[in-house]
Design brief:
five-stranded antiparallel sheet, 1 helix
């Protein structure tokens, strides 16, 4: 399924561990690598479009093409919000880094 006319934003963080030593100077900062990217997708749909997306939400793990780096990946749909008054749907997708 291809979503047309949607707005996509991405949030990618690095996992950092900071160790503070009492009485010592400074601290130790350790980089544990990047976490999974989290994508927020917003688009307008009618009721029929909502039903299709709701089915995708319940079906499992769809693939997603990152529009910024043109890479296909599996994602989990963590959250779906729909406003019937405006027709706006917001999907929160989490990259499956193990796939």
């Amino acid at each position: 399924m291809q979503l047309e006319g949607c707005h996509v934003s991405v949030n990618i963080k690095r996992r950092l561990e900071r160790k503070l030593v009492r009485g010592g100077e400074g601290d130790d900062l350790r980089d544990e690598g990047s976490e999974s990217a989290v994508y927020t997708v917003r688009l307008q749909v009618d009721t029929r479009g909502y039903k299709v997306l709701e089915g995708l939400f319940r079906a499992g793990q769809p693939s997603f093409i990152d529009p910024f780096i043109d890479r296909e990946m599996l994602v989990a749909i963590q959250e779906m919000t729909y406003d019937s008054e405006t027709g706006e749907v917001e999907l929160v997708l989490v990259e499956d880094a193990e796939a």
